[in-house]
Design goal:
Elements (H helix, E strand, L loop, with lengths): L8 H6 L2 H9 L5 H7 L8 H18 L14 H4 L11 H23 L5 H7 L6 H10 L12 H31 L2 E9 L2 E7 L8 E6 L5 E6 H32 L3 H26 L6 E2 L5 E6 L2 H10 L6 E5 L5 E5 L6 H16 L11 E2 L4 E5 L12 H15 L4 E5 L8 H17 L3 E5 L3 H5 L7 E9 L4 E8 L7 H8 L3 H10 L2 H82 L2 H19 L7 H31 L3 H12 L8 E4 L5 E8 L2 E5 L4 E5 L3 E5 L2
Parallel strand pairs: 5-9, 8-12, 8-13, 10-11, 11-12
Antiparallel strand pairs: 1-2, 2-4, 3-4, 6-7, 13-14, 15-16, 15-19, 16-17, 17-18
Length: 730
């Protein structure tokens, strides 16, 4: 039989996968789900992994939407179902009620998933594997009530027995009341008069009168001054009640056995229901944990590549958020062109966290757990995940740290292949730096030759330089703020980093003389190499800062341009509204003037017909102005010209008539004066004027030097007097 494939327990321990499971188990409702959550392991079947991620993701979406799943938490009943294997046994009523509730819950979930199948296709597919038997719940509910008690209607015999029990009980109460009144009148009873012992009503009799009361002694008070006696009359009834209750118990057992027998054929189905509800409890726990760490469903690449965008170490994220500290996301990519990353940089700069982030997220994803990354992230499936992280000194086996690590490397060499992801922290440490570094380089070359993928952290310069030899090995470094000598915890791909050994020593306060002595003791080429790395890191940091400033300025400029466009748009809208308002005011003024003239003409001539004719003509002219017919045919144009000629003749006729009337009223001279004043006049406050060439009339409010302040009703304007013409004197 082929051994089941698993991730080595050491890798799970090194990457703290068990801590993730502890967090998940805290969200589980049932004890079974809690325990099973702690036993979740990474898998290697891609379809199964993706299915579990999809199901958890759908549950997460229900938590974050207006469509939460119906209540589905129930106490597992696997132990109770074991009784179905034993003849002449029965399941307790409350356990049967629990089974009925489980069936109803599954039915409600099924209806819910069908109703919202667009949102929960994978959860629907999961539940539809079950066989639905609503008759099981119906059968249980006909016998057991909502409180887990057998119903009176469960059988005719039970109904009859309980009827007799109630009847006898009422008789007991009645007889006991009579006995109590009788002995109370005789003065035999104590102040409390009555009590209960083992559900039997007893009289509280003064000890001195014990022999005067007919009945059975069932107990005494602590002082012995009171004895508790069951009256002889109720004693007979109590015996009858006891027998009836025994009959009731036997009938209940009989009903439960019959009910249990009816469930035996459904045992496999009931076990599948139990399994489904536990699994759903675990899925819910994983989804709630995903919500806590802002996790999403990653994609799986078709080729061998891994790309984590804005990835967080989930445990660090939880811890830092509780403490109010920031968490720096990491961007890491492995593919066929970049199979191995060598991370260098100062101690406590975040190298180990970056390495652990990749490993832990890979384990979580392969275990069907959503991970805290950007949605564009993608992973690849690895059959082996090998780790060498932390101090692995073995006291039991009397192995030093370096010996243990060498033993671990031997294990690596046996298992490593193109389906392997290896993670090694502080590669080569524990021995002579030159010798340990050389051996580490040899191991790394072998891992490279076997096509494996991996990430290592190191301070060794020879490992930093190896990336120049092999195209699929790249350097990376943890960014360091050289100004403040503080780590930024930001991973930068493509360039090795300095350990900042002397700079950190200087920051801590080690005397310059000691630091200079140390520099002299180190190979000059090493110091020069480290100084070059430091300088390059500083320049890269400065370039990134400049790029960030440029990006921020670019965003600010775009925002300013956007605001300017919006401002211009608003100004144009206001200008259009003002023009419309101005035109409307102008039209109203013209209409007012026209109406005033028509009525003035009417008051002079008292000719209603003449007034009506002029009003209709004026209305026709206004209609033609507002609703011009644009698409006229040649025939329509000709008719329009004839009509306009007729209108001109009529207008000329009206003008002649008005002029004649004015002459008859001796106002021709006044008209001439007005016409002259229109050409040239001396403005006065209150005069109605207009700007030459315009149609809008205004009133002069103020005159200063060569300018007049005009009031248009809604606004005012200052205009040179020479540009005005008189409309009407005040």
């Amino acid at each position: 039989m082929r051994k089941k494939q698993t991730i080595h327990p050491k890798a799970l321990q090194d990457l703290e996968f068990d801590q993730i499971l502890k967090h998940i188990s805290q969200y589980a409702q049932s004890e079974n789900a809690k325990q099973e959550s702690l036993r979740i392991l990474p898998e290697f079947d891609k379809l199964s992994i993706i299915n579990k991620l999809n199901i958890t993701n759908e549950y997460l979406s229900s938590l974050e939407s207006d469509n939460p799943l119906p209540y589905h938490y129930i106490q597992p009943f696997e132990k109770e179902l074991k009784k179905l294997d034993v003849e002449n046994t029965f399941i307790e009523p409350k356990d049967l009620l629990n089974i009925a509730k489980a069936i109803e819950i599954i039915q409600n979930l099924h209806k819910f998933f069908i109703k919202f199948n667009t949102y929960f296709p994978f959860l629907l597919e999961q539940i539809e594997v079950l066989k639905f038997h609503p008759e099981i719940a119906k059968l249980i509910n006909t016998k057991i009530d909502a409180y887990g008690e057998i119903k009176d209607s469960a059988s005719e015999e039970l109904a009859n027995i309980r009827h007799q029990i109630n009847k006898v009980y009422q008789e007991i109460l009645q007889v006991f009341a009579q006995e109590k009144r009788k002995y109370d009148k005789l003065g035999y009873l104590a102040d409390i008069k009555e009590s209960q012992i083992e559900d039997r009503n007893v009289l509280a009799v003064q000890a001195a009168f014990r022999k005067k009361v007919k009945g059975s002694l069932l107990g005494t008070s602590k002082t012995g001054s009171i004895v508790f006696m069951e009256p002889e009359a109720t004693g007979q009834l109590q015996k009858r009640l006891f027998n009836l209750k025994y009959d009731e118990k036997q009938e209940v057992i009989k009903i439960l056995k019959e009910l249990t027998d009816a469930l035996r054929p459904y045992k496999p189905i009931l076990l599948s229901y139990n399994r489904y509800l536990i699994d759903l409890d675990i899925i819910a726990a994983k989804a709630k944990f995903a919500k806590e760490i802002s996790a999403v469903k990653p994609q799986f690449s078709k080729d061998k590549s891994l790309k984590l965008v804005k990835a967080y170490h989930p445990l660090l994220k939880i811890t830092n958020e509780k403490m109010g500290l920031p968490v720096v996301p990491q961007n890491i990519e492995l593919n066929e062109q970049k199979r191995i990353i060598i991370i260098s940089g100062p101690n406590a700069g975040g190298k180990s966290i970056s390495l652990k982030t990749v490993g832990l997220l890979q384990l979580m994803a392969q275990a069907g757990i959503l991970i805290p990354v950007h949605e564009s992230s993608r992973l690849s499936l690895f059959q082996n995940i090998l780790t060498d992280i932390g101090d692995n000194q073995s006291i039991e086996n009397q192995l030093s740290t370096y010996s243990y690590r060498l033993k671990n490397m031997r294990n690596f060499l046996r298992k490593i292949n193109p389906d392997t992801l290896f993670l090694i922290d502080e590669f080569g440490t524990g021995s002579d730096p030159d010798l340990g570094g050389a051996l580490a380089e040899a191991f790394l070359e072998e891992f490279y030759r076997k096509g494996a993928y991996g990430i290592i952290t190191t301070h060794y310069n020879n490992l930093k330089l190896i990336a120049d030899k092999y195209p699929e090995i790249i350097n990376a470094h943890m960014e360091f703020d050289t100004g403040n000598l503080q780590p930024t915890y930001q991973l930068n791909i493509g360039q090795a980093g300095s350990s900042f050994t002397f700079e950190v020593a200087q920051k801590i306060g080690i005397p310059y003389s000691i630091i200079n002595k140390a520099k002299k003791k180190v190979d000059k080429n090493k110091v020069k190499f480290d100084r070059t790395l430091t300088k390059m890191q500083r320049e890269i940091k400065d370039m990134k800062d400049l790029q960030a400033q440029y990006d921020a300025l670019k965003i600010a400029l775009k925002e300013e341009q956007k605001q300017q466009v919006e401002l211009n748009k608003n100004l144009l809208l206001k200008l259009n509204r003002f023009n419309k308002l101005y035109q409307m005011e102008n039209d109203l003024l013209k209409a007012g003037e026209r109406i005033s003239k028509l009525f003035e003409d009417y008051f002079k001539h008292q000719n209603a017909k003449r007034l009506t004719t002029q009003v209709f003509k004026w209305a026709e002219i206004e209609k033609n102005k507002k609703f011009p017919q644009l698409d006229k045919t040649k025939k329509q144009s000709k008719q329009s010209r004839i009509k306009q000629q007729k209108e001109k003749k009529i207008q000329a006729q009206i003008k002649n008539e008005v002029t004649t009337e004015l002459k008859n009223k001796n106002v021709a001279k006044e008209l001439e004066k007005i016409e002259i004043k229109t050409m040239k006049f001396t403005p006065k406050i209150g005069d109605q004027v207009r700007i030459k060439g315009s149609q809008a009339n205004a009133t002069i409010e103020k005159i200063e030097k060569n300018k007049a302040l005009l009031n248009y009703g809604r606004f005012t304007a200052s205009v040179p007097i020479k540009e005005l013409e008189l409309v009407l004197r005040k």
